Amino acid sequence: MSATGLANLFNQPPLNQYRVHLFNDFSSFKAALSETPFFSLIYSLSDEREERRNCLVAFREMSLAHGAIQRIVMASNEIEARLVSHLSPSRLHGIISKSASLSSLQSELATLLSETRRVNDNMLNNWNVSQSRMLSPTERAILRYMSSGYSIPEIATRLERNIKTIRAHKFNAMVKLGVNSDVGLLDAADILKYLPATDPRRCLIAAQIYS
């Protein structure tokens, strides 16, 4: 969804009660934040892992420095929504898949935006988490080691576990993240580094309520 498409989304009821500001990067948003009292920040992704990492970094920073501002992710599809949900280092107010119908997008955004200043624990935030448990600390550790190039035997040595146990944890992580190959798992593992990309292509939407 382009910036124009996102702007049009907010030009229609019930979202047209909000004043939206579009930003191409997080630094521009932070500069505007000093002058504008935004209550919600929506990060629109486009299915690129560098972008996911930047999103997670930005929202972690927001949760620490501006915890009162609502944080919503618009993922490209259900798979990306699942990855972000499982790997986010900070709690989110909502995760929405842009593959949903236009009416569903509008309805879900309207519901989330009406819940200002409260971390949303309802089904809109956890629709994908309800299908499976979050990654365990051991599963996260295995993914971190994989992203650093360690083999399964080396990871087993590092974690002082046997190889069969490490493989079982790896399989569980794949099931939870909805991936079916080592390539997909490494994609998720890479996100855990939380390293910002050098040239992200993203769209940030900051919202105000019309007075």
Automatic annotation (TrEMBL):
- Keywords tagged on the record: DNA-binding, Transcription, Transcription regulation
Q: Where is the HTH luxR-type domain?
A: 128-193
Q: Which InterPro entries does the record match to this protein?
A: Sig_transdc_resp-reg_C-effctor, Tscrpt_reg_LuxR_C, WH-like_DNA-bd_sf
GO molecular-function annotation terms? DNA binding
- For the keyword Ribonucleoprotein, the answer is no
Which Pfam families does the UniProt record give? GerE
Q: Which SMART domains match?
A: HTH_LUXR
Specify the superkingdom: Bacteria
**Which NCBIfam families does the record associate with it?**
PRK11475.1
The protein depicted here goes by the name: DNA-binding transcriptional activator BglJ
